[in-house]
UniProtKB/TrEMBL annotation:
It comes from Oscillochloris trichoides DG-6. NAD(+) binds at residues 76-89, 281-293. The gene is leuB. Gene3D superfamilies: Isopropylmalate Dehydrogenase (3.40.718.10). Its EC number is 1.1.1.85. This is 3-isopropylmalate dehydrogenase. GO terms for molecular function: 3-isopropylmalate dehydrogenase activity; magnesium ion binding; NAD binding.
Amino acid sequence: MDYTITALPGDGIGPEVVAEAIKVLHAVGARYGHTFTIREALIGGIAIDQTGTALPEATVAACQDCDAVLLGAVGGPKWDDPNAKVRPEQGLLGIRKALGLYANLRPVTLHPLLLDASPLRPERLVDVDLLVVRELTGGIYFGEKRREQDAQGEWASDLCVYTQAEVERIVRLAAGLARQRHGHLTLVDKANVLETSRLWRSIATRIMREEFSDLQYDWMLVDACAMHLLRRPSDFDVIVTENMFGDILTDEASMLAGSMGMLPSASLGSGKMGLYEPIHGSAPDIAGQGKANPLATILSTALLLRYSLGLEQEARAVEAAVSAVLEAGIVTGDIARGEQRAHSTVEVGSAVASRI
Ligand SMILES: NC(=O)c1ccc[n+]([C@@H]2O[C@H](COP(=O)([O-])OP(=O)(O)OC[C@H]3O[C@@H](n4cnc5c(N)ncnc54)[C@H](O)[C@@H]3O)[C@@H](O)[C@H]2O)c1
Ligand SMILES: CC(C)[C@H](C(=O)O)[C@@H](O)C(=O)O
Ligand SMILES: [Mg+2]
């Protein structure tokens, strides 16, 4: 089959890791008889530099006319002025919204060989296999923003809004995924303080009671969850949570997997179309040095093959090749241990591609 993928490399290490993921996609194509046509488009800081906006219309059009989108990362110190009107991150938020990608799936698993790459004690990490389902197009990220000046000085506000429909669709999606996994859903919120969280909790409780009574369901306050993720991470199956809590908890959860460079993600909407990206950012501290771990982006292409293209066998081939590369000790510096040499981004990507 022929597939068209829009690649949005973005900034910093984005282009470095996306190049390796594309290399792996072509290896999958060669092995299984598919053609992946890759169309590159601009997003983020590079788009600001070249067009004045973080999300050019041509990029939205390209993403609307393809089978799936593969994204690297956006942002960096060059565009970090807090008073700037145009910011790279607007491109990322804009494309998620424009494509209606309301569900961000962030699976967290730990390869046994990376047990001591994590800062946590190995015995805490045995059997870690959890999925964070992050709501992606609502909440405080998208509410009205204000920055004003009055007689007392400056003030600012970010409004957090969730509608019943937004909560219902993400809870149903997360519960459906829990049913296919270990049957346990945890809603993470801040219902002791926030009205939006109380809305989430009442809607989720009703849906779970009426439609998913075969599942185990509980809830947890987000501050406690941050602690339990480190204390007893293997007790979690599926976590469903709002946009900002999901963002923060998954950076924390990446430490269970050994590195930010290991966590992939899939952003999905109501159809097959999806956007796939590592959870990490543009890592300006290591950009341009060949040090970035490309595995999170490569594992994101496995999710792309699985969810948008329905190619389960090919997705598993990518995941197996990643495991084989870890077993061969071909790893970047962020997860290298003991005597292991820190390999370059390109070496790791090529090693995965050659094992497809
Ligand atoms: N999806 C995205 O595009 C995305 C996500 C997060 C942050 N950002 C942006 O990225 C910029 C930098 O943010 P930050 O430094 O807070 O977060 P970051 O995720 O870019 O980096 C955090 C730390 O993790 C390391 N790291 C990240 N990815 C790695 C990889 N693949 N291999 C090895 N090490 C890796 C970095 O070197 C750094 O030390 C900001 O402009 C931010 O807005 C973008
Ligand atoms: C860069 C930023 C807007 C983004 C987010 O907060 O969603 C990032 O942190 C992520 O996790 O994808
Ligand atoms: Mg984040």
